[in-house]
Design the sequence.
């Protein structure tokens, strides 16, 4: 079971924050098919948010085929976003950690690293199909 | 869509002063609606009319299709917590649960006791000796024990500290998720409302300034920043809600009816709070200018 957190300073609206957190958990393998999402009532209560917002987020995930509702039981993960890349992630992460230490030694701040990653990502992956992130 | 509350040109007058005037609105079932406006805007008057404590002087108000004034049968479906949560202060919470059972046709005492136990409210202490937050929770538990289909809350969190306010909204959202009750709550605290409410009614100077689903309202308003604007039409703009100008630049909060594509304008999304403040500011300047007898 995952626990949702909200970023009150984020411009992203509440229901989209919930959608993104589930997707993030699916990507890193924190949620796998068969896992149950927190009950609507529990999310509404713990975050003090409108239950309709939680329903809207779960419906969006359902439309994308990532989760499915079982009436009277709850909402369950049907598909993962981790795909075949998940087993490779540990190794890539080790490489990244080593690289970050080198960046630090070279005098880059966290902001420098993020800026470098973002520009390089755009330049390197520019030929790929444009990735559409919801606003 | 099922309408829980409908008002048509509703008005209430105290002496020669209209506390509420020409109020027309609908509240669809299953919504959690915010009734927003400054003090004296008519929020409490509207709630009192909806629960039948006041008789309209003009127009009509209907709750579940019935006129609430003098309708004791319809009352069973309405829960109401008035401002400052008035309870019999010498009674204990446990006693109030018993009293509620005697005074109401439909009453789930077990539900109330469960809620109060979960919140750690002492059953044997006079509620007058409880903290403000605990008293608000007792009032909410009693209102929910009625199992109302419409819950009206007048400034439920205004007098609570931030922690008690959050705890109150947590129990409210949790119980609404379970019961599907339609909620109308008045408040002048905007920050709490954006996450809690999905429907908005803005009252100012006894009149409805704005009403609708929050998603639609946020999608239908934009902030435009551009060169000084003299009031001409802008493509995609249905109405300018609020405008401020410097000698070169204009900042407009507008209601849109299409995409604003004019490159002269920088278009920004707005929050619910931006919209509410723009409508409230707009209403108050209009009133004061007409009251002082000068041109706006």
Sequence:
């Amino acid at each position: 079971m995952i626990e949702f957190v909200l970023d009150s300073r984020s411009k992203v609206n509440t229901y989209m924050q919930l959608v993104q957190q589930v997707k993030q958990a699916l990507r890193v393998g924190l949620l796998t098919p068969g896992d149950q999402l927190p009950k609507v009532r529990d999310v509404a209560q713990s975050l003090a948010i409108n239950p309709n917002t939680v329903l809207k987020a779960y419906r969006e995930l359902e439309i994308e085929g990532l989760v499915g509702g079982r009436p009277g039981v709850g909402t369950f993960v049907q598909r993962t976003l981790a795909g075949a890349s998940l087993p490779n992630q540990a190794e890539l992460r080790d490489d990244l950690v080593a690289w970050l230490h080198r960046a630090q030694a070279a005098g880059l701040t966290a902001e420098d690293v993020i800026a470098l990653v973002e520009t390089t990502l755009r330049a390197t992956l520019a030929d790929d199909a444009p990735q559409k992130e919801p606003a | 869509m099922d309408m829980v509350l409908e008002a048509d040109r509703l008005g209430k007058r105290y002496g020669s002063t209209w506390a509420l005037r020409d109020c027309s609105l609908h509240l669809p079932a299953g919504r959690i609606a915010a009734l927003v406006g400054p003090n004296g805007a008519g929020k409490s008057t509207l709630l009192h009319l909806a629960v039948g404590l006041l008789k309209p002087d003009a127009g009509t108000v209907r709750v579940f299709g019935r006129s609430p004034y003098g309708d004791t049968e319809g009352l069973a479906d309405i829960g109401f917590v008035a401002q400052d949560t008035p309870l019999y202060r010498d009674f204990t919470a446990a006693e109030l649960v018993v009293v509620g059972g005697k005074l109401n046709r439909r009453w789930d005492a077990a539900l109330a006791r469960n809620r109060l136990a979960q919140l750690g409210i002492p059953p044997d202490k006079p509620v007058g000796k409880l903290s403000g937050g605990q008293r608000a929770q007792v009032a909410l538990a009693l209102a929910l024990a009625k199992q109302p289909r419409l819950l009206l809350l007048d400034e439920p969190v205004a007098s609570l500290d931030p922690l008690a306010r959050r705890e109150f909204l947590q129990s409210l959202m949790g119980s609404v998720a379970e019961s599907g009750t339609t909620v109308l709550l008045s408040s002048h605290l905007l920050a709490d409302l954006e996450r809690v409410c999905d429907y908005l009614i803005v009252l100012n100077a006894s009149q409805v300034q704005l009403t609708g689903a929050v998603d639609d309202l946020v999608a239908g308003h934009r902030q435009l920043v551009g060169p000084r604007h003299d009031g001409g039409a802008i493509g995609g703009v249905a109405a300018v809600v609020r405008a401020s100008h410097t000698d070169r630049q204009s900042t407009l909060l507008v209601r849109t009816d299409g995409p604003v594509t004019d490159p002269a304008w920088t278009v920004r999304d707005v929050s619910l709070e931006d919209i509410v403040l723009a409508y409230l500011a707009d209403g108050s300047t209009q009133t004061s200018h007409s009251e002082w007898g000068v041109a706006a």
Observations:
- Chain B has a mean pLDDT of 90.
- The interface with chain A takes residues 30-32, 166, 169-174, 176-178, 194-198, 269 of chain B (CB under 8 Å).
- Chain B has eight helices and 13 strands.
- The helical segments of chain B are 43-50, 93-103, 109-118, 132-145, 162-179, 190-196, 214-219, 272-292.
